[in-house]
What we know:
Layout: H1 3-20, H2 26-32, H3 37-61, H4 67-87, H5 91-119, H6 125-154, H7 156-177, H8 190-197, H9 200-220, H10 223-230, H11 238-259, H12 266-285, H13 289-317, H14 325-351, H15 355-383
Amino acid sequence: MPVFIHVLGLAVFAQGTSEFMLSGLVPGIARDVSVSVGAAASLTSAYAIGMIVGAPVMAALSARWPRRRALAGFLAAFVGVHVIGAVTTDFAVLFATRIVAAIVNAGFLAVAMSVATALAAPAGRARATSILLSGVTLSCVVGVPAGALLGEWAGWRSAFWAVAALCLPALLLVFRSAPVDAGGRPDVSVRQEVRTLTSRSVQSALVLAAVVNAATFATFAYLAVVATDVTHLPTGAVPGLLAAFGAGAFAGVNAVGRATAGRLGQGVAIALWSLPVGWTLLALTSTRPVPLFLATVIQGGLSFGIGSALVNRVLHLASAAPSLNGSFATVALNTGAFLGPLLAGAVTGTTGDFRDAVWTSAALAATAVAVAAASSLSAGRRERGVVR
């Protein structure tokens, strides 16, 4: 595997840390810039919206740029807005920096996916994608808990400075070693690529990725509250629980990256069908610490492993749209990450029981199984000539 793909993974790790670290910094931000906790928490939503909007727009705008310039430009902008966020005392400016950071993050990830798949041999493309996604899961294992501790010891601004500093080695390596033409297509037709992405098979894979990720983040967003209010764990155990989820996710992403090449094989299909069962077991056993930790590790592995397989599936089915396929996969994942917690919040707000966030995940995972079954049935009919 080319070393430069690991450089991209480092940058994705830094950006993933920035995306998820806000959950542990909200109280400090609220106090420091004199806003409500709810307003400070909206920074997370701002980032999600920026990712959803930014991925296709930035991918389209940068489709004809040299890959080195695109990667370096997005990463430099990411560093810049974190420096601004670290020094500002104005909440509106901080809010704006989160949106801009998400947009350039989305652009970087879209270009990085196209570069990674262009550099890797055909048999290694799934592995290349898994390396990038491993950066996100590692941010859950290491970056997010470290950011929370740093914010507690030295203030939330120190976490922003740390993310900016973490990006600098990756930025230097991009300038020095990024292949200038890897994945580049100066004659790319955005309109033609969009047509490829509107095919029924690609759309089914995108919907499935969004629903699976919605199930993942419906619980992940409430995992800390489940631990303290349902399992009655001390707050000091929460970083360990989040790290356990991330460790499972890291293992799942890497296992799938070695085992799939853009096709949903039997193992991934079994994992998908197991997903609603796993969320159900987590909901039923969430009152006891040991089962909670075990189920969290397992569900982290299943959820992110399946999510990685679905990203590879999108890239495989939309190989004729190499400039945009990664961005649409990013949109699907972030749409799920945005809608899942909203749905869980609506349910738990009505029932008053935070375990219902996990039941929401179970329902969404069951929906994903139904979508996959319907898609498989439709594909089988088309192959037999029933659907034309």
